[in-house]
Design a protein that fits this description.
The protein is mostly helical and 684 residues long. It is 65% helix and 4% strand. The longest helix has 40 residues. The N terminus and C terminus are likely disordered.
Length: 684
């Protein structure tokens, strides 16, 4: 998303705050921070918890500030934590902080937070382009706002060039793409610094008598909370009306200091955090501080009394900027006020559940369980199954796999509750859902076959899927700002999401599972053929390989069933939404390709054209067909299903296609060399 409005704010910051030339070369060592501006002690736990619970509205959804902080930090830093090194005047020396503490430091100890190296730059060519040189740094490294500050003016210039090029539909090179991302991250960070300080203003050094009469709380340049200012703004507008057109400017000059104080909040109205729920229940959109100012001034009335308490409670946080104890007390009070305002609208009930979801970190914990299960499975293959240690390892694999699956299912279920829809509406959600289905099918298959192959596959697929979801979460953070964003209109229907999309996604899971198992079968069979120099298998081994191949065949049949039903349901949905059952849309064609390809495999096997080895090779190729339907058609940008584009995916897809092609070719070569039946030279 192009944040064109941030350019002005960042340009002003660049020229006002830059010291030294753009070619300055900051040193690698940690920059010392003045003790007077450093946070003197860690944030109290209760303040951190309260800050994370403050409800806001972001991207059309009410969520806790904990979620917002996590995705902002993930977008900038690539992770949700940061270790403050020594040199910041902290009594603890090094201090590891999470997303909430980081956001609190940015907003309340900005002079310190500007030295945190949290801006991830994937290619230092971006910095070279803006005239920054950093010695002793890696190509991919992290930098602080203070280190990037000398190059902000040039960064804005390069950003504008890249945006103009993109608007002309010209292809951007990687450096230009990263320039846009870095500028947006730095500009957003700059706005975060003023979130609470912009809620406080003053009357200036020499206020007029009637200004002091209107705001006696501001005597001696004392801070005035924004809510108090706006609650009496109707009086100011009345004076302007009395003064008429000729005297209006004089009135505004009289209130120039007051207006200047709230200008930061007003300037950020389009990009600030929406803390303020409207008192009018019919209005869905929450307001930022700047939007609240706009509404107050345009209506020529004071801010609604019901909103004054929340505005002033949040302003109290800004009044205590630089004071850990004072800010902590203000945060706890503001959280109570914000929670009450959200509850009055019936919009707070899911905030605690979302906190549980993100604090529980279910998918990361599932990843750890699957990794443990896979490690134990690998060890178990080297230990006889009947030995006590082998039995313990087998139980461990089962236990960790089941716990990992349970954690994944709990995480997916909580997402369903939070979003009031099935968990398959976005590509990120399909990763989680497909992984859970694949693991469940593997465990059921293992319970039926007891060959240990499906059990090991469950652990491997579970770990791979959870890892992929974490990587894709970074992409979602950069492009969408959240993995629980709104849906495109065509997907905004729970019935069809629960029927067509869920069914098709289960078909994807089965197709990919069959491909994964087929990889294992082929590798094991070829190694056995190499070891035996093409000799026929003994009866027990042949039976084992046939059993394994039947497992793959069963998974393919399972996937075909769901793919056929899901594709037909998709046609019914298309007829309901667009008035036609089939339109040869790329997404429709992708679903049909899966059905046809799996039908080819099953018919070829039934007709005797291929046997177990051929089924497995085609199943491997079927994985590429599923990947095309699942991901690639979204990258084409054409058709009625042209949603879900994700930058950087095509390169990964082509790498996967290439791997499948090479694997299939080598499999065929291996079959000819080691497994093809040989005729006797003396045969007639």
């Amino acid at each position: 998303m192009i944040r064109t409005g941030l350019a002005v704010a960042l340009a002003l910051l660049a020229f006002a705050g830059t010291s030294g030339s753009a070619s300055a070369a900051p040193q690698r060592q940690v920059q010392k921070v003045d003790v007077e501006v450093a946070r003197p002690k860690p944030w109290p736990k209760e303040a951190v918890e309260a800050f994370g619970k403050i409800p806001i509205q972001d991207r059309g959804r009410v969520k806790p500030l904990f979620t917002y902080a996590g995705f902002r930090m993930l977008n900038m830093n690539g992770k949700r934590s940061y270790t403050i090194p020594e040199g910041f005047g902290l009594p603890t020396g090094k201090e590891r902080i999470g997303q909430v503490e980081w956001l609190m430091d940015v907003m309340l100890f900005p002079e310190q937070a500007r030295h945190y190296e949290i801006f991830l730059v994937n290619d230092n060519a971006v910095l070279d382009a803006v005239g920054l040189r950093f010695e002793g740094r890696k190509k991919r490294d992290r930098y602080s706002f203070q280190q990037l500050r000398p190059g902000l003016a040039k960064l804005e210039s390069e950003y504008r060039k890249a945006v103009a090029k993109r608007q002309r539909d010209e292809k951007l090179d990687p450096v230009e793409t990263q320039t846009i991302a870095l500028f947006n991250a730095v500009a957003e960070y700059d706005l975060l610094e003023t979130t609470f300080s912009s809620l406080v203003t003053t009357l200036g050094e020499d206020p007029s008598e009637r200004l002091l009469e209107l705001y006696p709380e501001g005597a001696n340049n004392a801070p005035l909370p924004l809510g108090l200012v706006l609650s009496r703004w109707d009086t100011v507008t009345g004076w302007m009306q009395e003064a008429g057109a000729e005297g209006r400017d004089a009135v505004m000059r009289e209130f120039a200091a007051l207006e200047k104080g709230i200008n930061a909040a007003w300037a950020n109205r389009a990009f600030g955090i929406a803390f303020f729920p409207p008192s009018d229940q019919s209005v869905e959109e929450w307001s930022t501080a700047g939007e609240l100012i706009d509404q107050t001034m345009s209506s020529r009335q004071g801010v609604n009394p019901a909103e004054v308490g929340l505005v002033n409670a949040l302003a109290a946080i800004g009044e205590n900027q630089g004071d850990v104890d004072g800010a902590s007390a203000a945060i706890i009070g503001a959280q109570t006020a914000a929670e009450g305002a959200a509850k009055a609208r019936g919009e707070f009930e899911k905030v605690p559940l979302e906190l549980t979801y993100y604090q529980g970190d279910f998918f990361y914990r599932a990843l750890l369980c699957f990794l443990a299960a896979f490690l134990m499975a690998a060890i178990s293959w080297m230990v006889p199954r009947r030995q006590t240690f082998g039995k313990v390892l087998s139980l461990g694999v089962w236990g960790f796999s089941l716990v990992g699956l349970l954690l994944a299912v709990v995480g997916v279920t909580i997402r369903c509750v939070l979003l009031d829809r099935p968990p398959v509406a976005t590509l990120y959600e399909t990763i989680l859902f497909i992984t859970s289905v694949a693991v469940a099918v593997c465990l059921i298959t293992e319970a039926l076959t007891k060959e240990r192959i499906a059990l090991a596959s469950a652990a491997a697929l579970g770990a791979s899927g959870m890892f992929l979801s974490m990587k894709y979460e970074l992409v979602e953070a950069a492009s969408q700002g959240d993995t629980m964003g709104g849906l495109v209109a065509v997907l905004n229907t729970n019935f069809w999401l629960a029927t067509h999309v869920t069914t098709v996604t289960i078909g994807y899971a089965a197709g990919l599972l069959a491909a994964a198992l087929a990889h294992v079968w082929i590798v094991m069979r070829l190694f056995r053929g190499m070891k035996d120099q093409g000799a026929a298998l003994d009866t027990a081994s042949a039976a084992w390989y046939r059993s394994f191949a039947r497992m793959i065949y069963g998974v393919l049949c399972f996937g075909l069933l769901f793919s056929v039903v899901g594709t037909i349901l998709g046609g019914v949905w298309a007829n309901d939404s667009w008035g036609r059952f089939w339109g040869w849309d790329p997404k429709e064609n992708g679903a049909l390709m899966i059905v046809l390809f799996e039908l080819v495999i099953l018919h070829a096997r039934m007709a005797g054209y291929i046997k177990d080895f051929g089924v497995c090779v085609l199943a491997v190729m079927g994985g590429a067909v599923v990947a095309f339907s699942w991901w690639h058609v979204n990258q084409l940008g054409v058709g009625l299903h042209s949603y879900g584009f994700t930058a950087g995916v095509l390169k990964t897809l082509w790498s996967y296609y290439s791997f499948v092609a090479v694997f299939a070719a080598l499999s065929g070569l291996g079959w000819m060399m080691f497994l093809r039946p040989r005729r006797s030279l003396g045969a007639a």
